[in-house]
Design a protein that fits this description.
The chain is mostly helical. Helix 1 packs antiparallel against helix 2.
């Protein structure tokens, strides 16, 4: 997972958490968004997204060993 991807996920997760805990978002949608933000935060911290593996997406730069 690339750095930009990780930063975007962390910013999204923190934004949703702030909105939830300040009461700006409520109801079932807020719970869904809070769970999604927790998943985003967890995958950012471990630098691995299982969904990316399933669909073959890579957001990190790979090092070229050819010189």
């Amino acid at each position: 997972m690339g750095t930009i991807d990780r930063v975007v996920r962390i910013v999204f997760a923190l934004s949703i958490a702030i909105l939830f805990f300040t009461g700006q978002i409520t109801g079932a949608l807020s719970i869904i968004l809070l769970v999604l933000s927790a998943i985003f935060l967890l995958t950012s911290l471990v630098s691995f997204c299982p969904l990316y593996t399933l669909v073959g997406i890579k957001t990190c730069k790979t090092k070229n060993n050819n010189g």
